[in-house]
Amino acid sequence: MTTTAAAPIEVAANPVAVSITGLHKAFGDKTVLDGVDLTIRRGEFVVLLGPSGTGKTTLLRLLTGLETPDAGEVLVPPRRTTVYQEPRLIPSKRVLANVIVGLRRGRAQREAGLRALTEVHLDGKAGQWPATLSGGEAQRAALARALVREPELLLLDEPFAALDALTRLRMQDLVGDLVARHRPAVLMVTHDVDEAIRLADRVIILDRGRFAVDETVDLPHPRDHAAPETLGYRTRFLAQLGVGPHARSLS
Predict the structure, then answer these.
(1) DSSP string, 174-229
(2) pLDDT greater than 80 at residue 245
(3) C-alpha span between 148 and 61 (Å, rounded)
(4) What is the CA radius of gyration of the chain?
(5) Is the pTM of this model over 0.85?
(6) Could you give all domains of the chain from N- to C-terminal order, each with its CATH number?
(7) Nearest-CA neighbor of 78 among 63, 66, 92, 89?
């Protein structure tokens, strides 16, 4: 039986935002997700790693409702937003209008949009057109558009992949700060192991339709990429992904 709920499950003082049980999804003869179980609580930052084609984006699409599971139960909150690799701003609308697009018109919505732009350091760009923004600025506008809706679940689909290395690091810090402030549940897809360790409370590695790793990253923020503890996580995760001297086969 397949069920999608429209509200989070309350567990003590820390509500569960996502609850997935026995999730199966196939495309033709290819099984992409094979009996997946997953729980994410409000305020928890979960990063999903795995080779291309292993079902990471499919899992995100199932959580947004863009895909339907073949079997299993998917429980998600009603307020959920997604930030993609491309900002997906509307060229014919100014930055503030893009941030509050789809919201009811009014002074309160405009003020909320301006506050969101201030949070992502774009308060001086509200009246500009998307074409005038840099790649990092456009992605910050997309992030403001997601956060202005105060989501209980924030889905991030490789949101920094198109950015240069320095902008990417700055965006990682910004997202980490915003998530700590707003406390949504977060599920982020990335191919970058260092990015995962920098941001995640938990790292999950998807391999052949199942979770091969689901590990808590027990390090304080901000994280030192050169610290021995950080390098230990990096070595283990890369090995699970088939990289390094202790790599396991993913074939």
Answers:
(1) HHHHHHHHH--EEEEE-S-HHHHHHH-SEEEEEETTEEEEEEE---PSSP-TTSHH
(2) no
(3) 21
(4) 18
(5) yes
(6) 1-79+152-159+185-251 (3.40.50.300)
(7) 63
